[in-house]
Amino acid sequence: MDIHRCRFVNYPSSAINSVAFTHSVLPAKASKNIQVRLAIGRANGDIEIWNPLNGAWLQELVIQGGQDRSVDGLVWVTDADEEMVDGKIIYGKSRLFSIGYTATITEWDLEKARAKKHASGQHGDLWCLGIQPLPHKASAASNTNRKLVAGTVDGNLVLYSIENNDLKFERSLIRTPSKNVKFVSIDFQSRYIVVVGCSNGRIYAYDIRNGSLLRQMSLGTDINGGSKNIIVWSVKCLPNGDIVSGDSTGQVCIWDGKTYTQAQRIQSHTQDVLCLSVSADGSRIVSGGMDRRTAIYEPMASHSGRWTKIFHRRYHSHDVKAMASFESKGMSVVVSGGSDSSPVVIPLRNAGREYHRTLSHLPQNATLQSAPKARLILSWWGKEVRIWNLPMSASQLINDPAAPSYMRKNRKLIAKIIVKGESSISSAAISEDGTLLAAATVSDIKVFQLNLAGDQIKKVSLETSGLGATKIQISPDKQWISWVEDGSRVMTSRVSVESSNNSENYVISKPTKLNRLRRHIPKHILLGGLGSYERNVTQIEFSPDSKVLAVADLAGYIDTWVLRVPGEEKQTNGASGETADDDESDSSSDEEEESAAEKSGPHWVRNPKAALLPKLSTAPVVLSFSPETLDEQDYSLLVITASKQLFVFNPLAGALSEWSRRNTYPKLPEQFRETRDLVKGVVWQRQRVWVYGASFVFMLDLSKDFDPEIDNAKSGKKQGIKRKRGVNESGAGGRIEKSSHALGPQKVRTTTTGEANEKVEWEEVDVMMADAKSATSGAEDEGDEDEEDEDGELQRLRGGEENGKEVAEVEKTETTAKWWHTYQYRPILGMVLLGVESPEEGELVEVALVERPLVGADLPERYLVEGEWERR
Questions:
Q1: Which pLDDT does position 179 carry in this prediction?
Q2: Is the CB of residue 83 less than 8 Å from the CB of residue 90?
Q3: Distance between CA 551 and CA 549 in Å, rounded?
Q4: Residue 448: how many other CB atoms lie within 10 Å
Q5: Are strands 436-441 and 294-299 parallel, antiparallel or unpaired?
Q6: DSSP string, 796-807
Q7: Is the peptide bond before 666 cis (omega within 30 degrees of 0)?
Q8: CB atoms < 10 A from the CB of 575, how many?
């Protein structure tokens, strides 16, 4: 494989301004139905939703921002639990609100991935936002009595009502006498007492029932001879009622919650303390500041009521602006963010005893696609789409003696498209020949016909419902466009060509909706938590011949459809033509729709075996069809989940492939299973799959078995060996075991597209080939349990292994690696196919790997004193 290593994609970084968890703490025996999510707000208006997944940290959703938008405050509102008549618990419904230094509060609809409601009042810009806590004995009636309390830039404290699933301005609670006072930070000490940090060096405590001022606390003047007006950037209240504040002098102050007097000052930062977080039991305080430090404090054992800093670290390369904590039986973490764009997960319960973990600043779904037949790369960011051309192939560059000079010219920006409107692009796609482009926002879908040789770009009309799309894809044969609107509704339109005036124009038909299988989700789950949010579609993919369409959602369900063409024999490839036996498959309605659609031409119908594909234990992060079938009678659909489970399905038969039955999770390479970053995408080379994440590239040869001699007995399944679930108990970093492997004979050629005066050369990179035993060493006590074997549906699909049938021995070859990996590329924005050549020794795949390091990114200037870089 030849790799073009590129860094030319315009993908600016965006600072993290706010973070918030749906729940700050879960009881030890919390139900698995409780949905815990992390929301991250960025300076460009994006909101990211993350699932902790026991330390896997999956970025599930990105709600795109827009022009002049910023998310500077996030608050989750989680209602009290309710008990149904049958005894089942409806866990409190979660709602997400945000502010952005405007006079407006926005509620977000995660199911539809867009704003749900806006509300504003007669006041200045909102700078801080808090939610009134539930009473100790919360009931369903408590959900209707809670208020959002916000502080403004003009010193006004305002109330917003969220009753009856609504959002509206209620009244102004208090206004300070001075117009120069800004309410900067806010937290609740109890259900009716709110504590506000201000820009005048004071902290106020108000009773929200009548707006009365209970007490004011003053920080005085900067003891270091600085400004007299100290800004209280953050306030937090401990469970015992004590108050913690962080200010512009770099001090963390502890205030007695009963007398409202200062109990202690800790000078732990050299510059402003911008954010604070406290543990659920009040035993730890975490602070972050402009000096890049993150400090942790504990109560002093010898002095009751006093605190001490136990240590500090510089996890970030710039200001630490926001943080939030989450604790449960298996996790105890603080997530922080700032101007360097990367979220950092810090252990809280095991602080100082475990490693931290830096999550990728790049999106989980690559904002990158290619048109391999035209050697084009499509990238997008904000409202801008860029198209690049790499005209010369790898073979031409290698064989041409003037390769270095050509290489400097081997990339060219040939088109730039700005999508009109206020919303940013959520998804984009380009046809394989580079003549059709589609870009979607939350409110619209734009389609363009490209004639890049003639420097022409024409808009193509597409009739939509005005809802835009979260995902969009163009079929390989360029005859279909499919997209996802409202988060979960799958739509398709046919693309045809009409000739007029000696030119060809694309025409797009009226969209049609594809019905997904209705899955049985208990009522008590739909009414609580995040509702049907997990049915949001995250993956959409066409088969190479454009005759099968597959989508996957966050819940782990896969839906498939097949293309029917009037007059052609129905393609079942060994699958029964009968509708699957599922009482919720809507088979009768499907047949009526199919008979009506046959009159109008090619149309999509639900795969008769769609219901046989099982629900996966975690969300799929990759959904991809193999260009060559691994089983001759069916397509091969590769699915990789967030927990590194790898499956190959035969969708028309609704079954696992024979290869996937033999190669269970414990038999996958150990390095692949233990790599912490999630998989982002794949590139196929016949039956080899090149898997990449933010920091790695793996090659897995799916034509070979990894370890056929290891059976279920050795893995501990039948011997009753209880395997440990994960070495990452806190949800942050952990100890990573390093293993050595023999070098294989295979090499990969890489090159870098550099600047104009940079010398560019091809480099031979040795690859790592694992032998059979080392790839699965420790299978008996592997940290991640083979969860798919616990699922009844997957046990049924695996069939042969579960019934004790032996796996046939596969001949090993010493000249070809079954798998290899490298960590030399990082951080990877995406990897896309550029072309395929077929020399005598085998198929040669050419790809472009695009990196987006933070080095050189446009970051604001940071505070720096003499010697600050050296001080730790």
A1: 73
A2: yes
A3: 7
A4: 19
A5: unpaired
A6: HHHTTTTTTPPP
A7: no
A8: 22
Pull the structure tokens for residue 565.
């063409």
Tell me which residues of the chain have a pLDDT lower than 50.
405-407, 572-585, 587, 708-727, 735-747, 754-760, 765-790, 800-815, 865-872
pLDDT for residue 839: 61
Closest CA to 155 of 173, 181, 177, 129: 181
> What is the pairing mode between strands 828-837 and 844-851?
antiparallel
| Sign of the torsion formed by the C-alpha atoms of 134, 135, 139 and 140 | negative
The amino acid at residue 663 is N
Provide φ and ψ at 442, rounded to 5°: -70, -15
Coil vs helix vs strand at 846: strand
Alpha carbons 535 and 521: distance in angstroms, whole number:
10
DSSP assignment of 352-372 equals: TTS--EEPPSS-SS-SEEEET
The residue whose two tokens read 């509060």 is 105
Which phi and psi (to 5°) does residue 170 adopt? -105, -60
- Cα dihedral sign, 166-169-173-175: positive
Strand 655-656 to strand 646-650: parallel, antiparallel, or no bridges (unpaired)? antiparallel
Instruction: State the amino acid at position 351 in one-letter form.
Output: A
pLDDT at 758: 45
Q: What is the phi/psi pair of residue 536, to 5°?
A: -60, 135
CA–CA gap between residue 31 and residue 28 (Å, rounded): 9
Nearest Cα to 35, choosing from 528, 556, 523?
A: 528
- Tokens coding 11: 């993908």
How distant is the alpha carbon of residue 242 from its chain centre? 36
Q: Residue 180: CB partners within 8 Å, gap ≥ 6?
A: 155, 199, 200
793 backbone φψ class: left, alpha, beta (φ>0; ψ -120 to 50)? alpha
Distance in angstroms (rounded) separating the CA atoms of residues 364 and 725: 25
Q: Does residue 6 contact residue 411 with C-beta atoms inside 8 Å?
A: yes
DSSP code at position 674: H
For residue 608, give every residue at least 6 positions away whose Cβ sits within 8 Å of its Cβ, in sequence order, or none. 572, 575, 576, 577, 578, 579, 580
| 150: nearest Cα among 106, 212, 95 | 106
Strand partners, 625: 637
Q: Which residues contact 445 (CB under 8 A, 6 or more apart)?
A: 438, 439, 462, 464, 468, 469, 472, 483
Inter-residue contact 195 to 187 (CB < 8 Å):
yes
HSE toward the beta carbon, residue 598, CA cutoff 13 A: 11
Q: What local confidence, expressed as pLDDT, does residue 719 receive?
A: 39
Q: According to DSSP H, which parts of 570-722 are helical?
A: 587-598, 658-662, 670-674, 712-715
pLDDT of residue 732: 83
In the chain, where the domains are located: 368-851
- Residue 178 has a pLDDT of 75
Q: Write the CA distances from 476 to 172, 241, 830, integer angstroms.
A: 57, 62, 20
Give the total residue count for the chain.
872
Q: Which of 675, 13, 9 has its CA nearest to residue 361?
A: 13
**Does an H or E element contain 512, and which?**
strand 512-514
Element (H, E) at 759: none
pLDDT of residue 583: 37
Mention every residue, 6+ apart, whose C-beta is less than 8 A from residue 241.
Answer: 189, 190, 257, 258
Tokens of 140: 């369903």
**Looking at the domain that runs over 368-851, which CATH code has it been given?**
2.130.10.10
In whole angstroms, what is the distance from residue 504 CA to residue 248 CA?
Answer: 64
Which tokens is 554 given? 């966050």
Q: What is the pLDDT of residue 845?
A: 87
What is the edge-to-edge ordering of all strands in the sheet holding 94-99? 73-78, 94-99, 104-109, 114-120
Question: Which residues, in sequence order, are CB contacts of 833 under 8 Å at separation 6+?
Answer: 370, 372, 683, 684, 845, 846, 847
Ranges of beta strands (E only) in 28-167 are 38-42, 47-51, 58-63, 73-78, 82-83, 89-90, 94-99, 104-109, 114-120, 126-131, 147-152, 156-161
